Amino acid sequence: MAQILEYALFGAVVAANLCLGLYFSFRKGPPGSGNVSPDTEMFLGSRALRVLPLAASAVASTMSSTGLIAFPAHFYAYGMHIAWGILAHFLYMPLVTHLVVPVIYKLGVTSIFEVSAQNSCILLLER
User: Fold this and answer.
1) Predicted TM-score (pTM) above 0.70
2) Cβ distance 74 to 82 under 8 Å?
3) What is the domain partition of the chain in residue ranges?
4) Phi, then psi, of 108 in degrees rounded to 5
């Protein structure tokens, strides 16, 4: 009985996600129908995401399942010294937020890997 319930629940979740995707794809019209390219609309949210979805996306892209499982195991095996790593995040995040993010934003790139691909570093240093 439990196996049938699991399959039914899995089917309901898949169907709900499929319906949600179809609704939003038909509601906005075909991709690229406006002045935004289909790639920008699909992968960057037309560069109009608000703070919470953008933060959730950044957290989800930096968090791996291996790290999520390994963190408690590392904490259990080696103890509190991992708190120093957490403390380091609080020290460098204001620096990154005020120094690196404005530069990346002004360059108009999606990720820091695009900076080296576009040779924008050279243009930035010339200004």
Assistant:
1) no
2) yes
3) 1-48, 50-78, 81-127
4) 75, 30
